[in-house]
Amino acid sequence: MEKEKANIGQKAGAVWHKLNETGSITIPELALKLNIGVEETTLAVGWLAREDKVFIERKNGILHVRNS
Question: What is the DSSP secondary-structure string of the chain?
């Protein structure tokens, strides 16, 4: 369990840095840019959301994420 948490935390850091470059982006697009799975990307975004570091909004029915 701890190893998985550390992996998600590491992915959260990668997400954070990529969001600084991209601005608002969908989770599938973000996963593609990071070359990681959508599930891992979603977990990392959730980690950052819990820390109030990202803003998630729905545009035309699609979730977008950006740094807060």
Answer: -HHHHHHHHHHHHHHHHHHHHH-SEEHHHHHHHHTS-HHHHHHHHHHHHHTT-EEEEEETTEEEEEE-
In 3D space, the residue among 59, 64, 53 whose CA is nearest the CA of residue 22 turns out to be 64
Residue that is written with structure tokens 């990681």 in the block: 36
Task: Compute mean pLDDT per 10 residues along the chain, 68 residues long, and list them.
Answer: 88 96 96 96 96 95 93
pLDDT at 5: 86
Q: Which of 62, 56, 61 is nearest to 44 (CA)?
A: 56
Beta bridge partners of 54: 67
Q: Which residue has the tokens 């996963």?
A: 31
